[in-house]
Amino acid sequence: MAGLRLSKTTIALLLLIVCHVGPSMAVLFSQLPKTLIVTATTKSGDVLHAGEDKFTVTWALNTSLPAGADANYKTVKVLLCYAPVSQHDRKWRKSNNDLKKDKTCQFTVVKQDYSATGKHEYTVARDIPTASYFVRAYALDASDTKVAFGQTTDANKTSNIFDIVGITGRTTGIFVSAIVFSAFSGVALAFFYVVENKKKK
Amino acid sequence: METTEAVGAPGSSLHGVTGKEPAYAFSVDSKTQLDTNATFDLPVDSEHKATKFKLFSLANPHMRTFHLAWSSFFTCFVSTFAAAPLVPIIRDDLNLKKADIGNAGVASVSGAIFSRLVMGAVCDMLGPRFGCAFLMMLAAPTVFCMSLVSNAAGYITMRFLIGFSLATFVSCQYWMSTMFNSKIIGLVNGTAAGWGNMGGGATQLIMPLVYDLIRKAGATPFVAWRIAYFVPGCLHIIMGILVLTLGQDLPDGNLKSLQKQGNVNKDKFSKVLWYALTNYRTWIFVLLYGYCMGVELTTDNVIAEYFYDRFDLNLRTAGTIAACFGMANIVARPLGGLLSDKGAQYWGMRARLWNIWILQTLGGAFCLWLGRANSLPVSVVAMVLFSICAQAACGAIFGVIPFISRRSLGVISGMTGAGGNFGSGLTQLLFFTSSRYDTAEGLTLMGIMIMACTVPITLVHFPQWGSMFLPPSKDEKRSTEEHYYGSEWNEEERSQGLHGASLKFAENSRSERGKRNVASAPTPPGNTPEHV
């Protein structure tokens, strides 16, 4: 009898642990319905400059869907995503079907409450690196889980790809400082060497 | 006698590197003549080299030299590996691909292979103080110019040029051999080498910290990493000036006598080189060192980015974990030497060889585990164990190097050191540059390669002491130390008595027979091995 009770407790404990610690079901990109239609004012091959240029992104629920399809959509998150050409040889930007591990979309354009249609004017942030991009929007439910998406490009991510030129960070101040410090280093060395040789004589 | 040998002989700039010199290399007996008239802070011998090592003193000139020398070497390690923890930011700024990052890593360790050789000659000509200062001050512009790169080619070029500064290893060791008596030079140089290597770990802490501070001050990421590079650059200038103003070449500060005796070449370089190259043990140890020091340098380059990407950590956390790898040098390297010495006390040279094999193979196994680990805690544990074993193996290898050859010791030490850098470049090229393997796979393969490349140590056989699996030779003539070390000199040289130092060394090296030694020839007094 005691043995049975023990095993029941063990099972109860295990269930408790699994329910709290066990991973939530992985959200797979391939299973997300493409219910949003996302367009942006950028055209294929456009070159935008970080910190200066703007574009407007518009999203709307696909009207051909039955009513109530967006019942659980609470928020919309629009992201700037790397095109395949910028993911090549760069595993830190790799696409992964498991959205927890997916690194395609690393920059948020806007996150706001869901409405059946929406638009946002975005000035390219100063820290966006030089690469080729497209825009994707996810619909999130109340628990911030992705439930649907839409993107400006096709399934192979080849159409409507635009480029952003990042700000390199090589400011004039840094340029001048580097030259000055380097020159100081050379001059100081020469100075000490000459002084020492004079002292020897 | 000692000074000329220390200054003029080929490869002499690497004396003291090996850690076994105190007992064997020079004809110093236990009653080293102390110069009691000298007014130095430490007791000194007749050449005014210190005979004691007081770690926490800054007294001029001996201890001050020690601290100047190791901190210059440390600074060069900081600047050479400064990019590693910042790669996640740099790769986006410069639009780098994996191949670019890998090639830059290869470039960062390759330059030193050549600059080390040149540095030996520079130290002979200008003295170690100017050699060190020249390198520090001339490398500073390369560090500053790293802030100006805008593409992959520039990045790779600057990392290559900054890597030249690792030659301060040679000036550091050379400088201390002019300041410290041969009885303690092993301990001094071993400590300096370990503390300098720590720079590779410290930089993984320093650079992300500086980067974070600059970001908090308002800079964007791509500006912040460039400003952060000014820190190692300024360290170069500060250390260079300190060396120039506070340092001196000799205990008496007299550079002239150094230069005068520097022209005395007691041995022919071509012969020294020949005996180094034709001894098969040299090549085995070059390979071995390439897979303990080499993998240490490789890991310094890749580990921060690995933790950042694999476990989604922020820059500071990834850097802190990566730092644990390099910082283990503070104890791990001396530990390897200590284990080697302890083993040799009982079982002689065979214990030293087994020690190396065990440590390095374990290191490879832990590296393999690191590559396969899927969770953060397991990864960190595997990394720490890997670092301890690999660095201890480095220390253990330099416990055996002095016994490979007496005549060509300097050249062999230099070749082994270069082998470390070469191994690092090769490993990064094979496993961390192409897109075929991701970093985790690269680490796994590196672990396998370490274990495979350690196997050749089973082939190292000393006729007088044996090898891992074979006992010493039974032949009466060949089983003596004198025969082994004497065979590096031809008949003509022997008839001239040029091999005297080798014979003395042979006599002193009898302790490598282990406990067996008690039964054979009596150990001359005052020649018990120094423990590093």
Automatic annotation (TrEMBL), chain A:
<dbReference type="GO" id="GO:0042128">
    <property type="term" value="P:nitrate assimilation"/>
</dbReference>
<comment type="similarity">
    <text>Belongs to the NAR2 family.</text>
</comment>
<dbReference type="GO" id="GO:0015112">
    <property type="term" value="F:nitrate transmembrane transporter activity"/>
</dbReference>
<dbReference type="InterPro" id="IPR016605">
    <property type="entry name" value="Transptr_NO3_Nar2"/>
</dbReference>
<keyword id="KW-1133">Transmembrane helix</keyword>
<feature type="transmembrane region" description="Helical">
    <location>
        <begin position="174"/>
        <end position="195"/>
    </location>
</feature>
<protein>
    <recommendedName>
        <fullName>High-affinity nitrate transporter</fullName>
    </recommendedName>
</protein>
<dbReference type="Pfam" id="PF16974">
    <property type="entry name" value="NAR2"/>
</dbReference>
<feature type="signal peptide">
    <location>
        <begin position="1"/>
        <end position="26"/>
    </location>
</feature>
<keyword id="KW-0812">Transmembrane</keyword>
<dbReference type="GO" id="GO:0005886">
    <property type="term" value="C:plasma membrane"/>
</dbReference>
<comment type="function">
    <text>Involved in nitrate transport.</text>
</comment>
<keyword id="KW-1003">Cell membrane</keyword>
<keyword id="KW-0534">Nitrate assimilation</keyword>
<dbReference type="GO" id="GO:0010167">
    <property type="term" value="P:response to nitrate"/>
</dbReference>
<keyword id="KW-0472">Membrane</keyword>
<keyword id="KW-0732">Signal</keyword>
From TrEMBL, chain B:
<feature type="transmembrane region" description="Helical">
    <location>
        <begin position="187"/>
        <end position="207"/>
    </location>
</feature>
<dbReference type="GO" id="GO:0015112">
    <property type="term" value="F:nitrate transmembrane transporter activity"/>
</dbReference>
<feature type="transmembrane region" description="Helical">
    <location>
        <begin position="443"/>
        <end position="462"/>
    </location>
</feature>
<feature type="transmembrane region" description="Helical">
    <location>
        <begin position="155"/>
        <end position="175"/>
    </location>
</feature>
<feature type="transmembrane region" description="Helical">
    <location>
        <begin position="313"/>
        <end position="332"/>
    </location>
</feature>
<feature type="transmembrane region" description="Helical">
    <location>
        <begin position="101"/>
        <end position="118"/>
    </location>
</feature>
<feature type="transmembrane region" description="Helical">
    <location>
        <begin position="227"/>
        <end position="251"/>
    </location>
</feature>
<feature type="transmembrane region" description="Helical">
    <location>
        <begin position="378"/>
        <end position="404"/>
    </location>
</feature>
<comment type="similarity">
    <text>Belongs to the major facilitator superfamily. Nitrate/nitrite porter (TC 2.A.1.8) family.</text>
</comment>
<dbReference type="Pfam" id="PF07690">
    <property type="entry name" value="MFS_1"/>
</dbReference>
<feature type="compositionally biased region" description="Basic and acidic residues">
    <location>
        <begin position="473"/>
        <end position="485"/>
    </location>
</feature>
<feature type="transmembrane region" description="Helical">
    <location>
        <begin position="130"/>
        <end position="149"/>
    </location>
</feature>
<keyword id="KW-0812">Transmembrane</keyword>
<dbReference type="GO" id="GO:0042128">
    <property type="term" value="P:nitrate assimilation"/>
</dbReference>
<comment type="function">
    <text>Involved in nitrate transport, but does not seem to be able to mediate transport by its own. Acts as a dual component transporter with NAR2.1. Imports nitrate with high affinity when expressed with NAR2.1 in a heterologous system (Xenopus oocytes).</text>
</comment>
<keyword id="KW-0472">Membrane</keyword>
<keyword id="KW-0534">Nitrate assimilation</keyword>
<dbReference type="InterPro" id="IPR044772">
    <property type="entry name" value="NO3_transporter"/>
</dbReference>
<dbReference type="InterPro" id="IPR036259">
    <property type="entry name" value="MFS_trans_sf"/>
</dbReference>
<feature type="transmembrane region" description="Helical">
    <location>
        <begin position="272"/>
        <end position="293"/>
    </location>
</feature>
<feature type="region of interest" description="Disordered">
    <location>
        <begin position="471"/>
        <end position="532"/>
    </location>
</feature>
<dbReference type="GO" id="GO:0016020">
    <property type="term" value="C:membrane"/>
</dbReference>
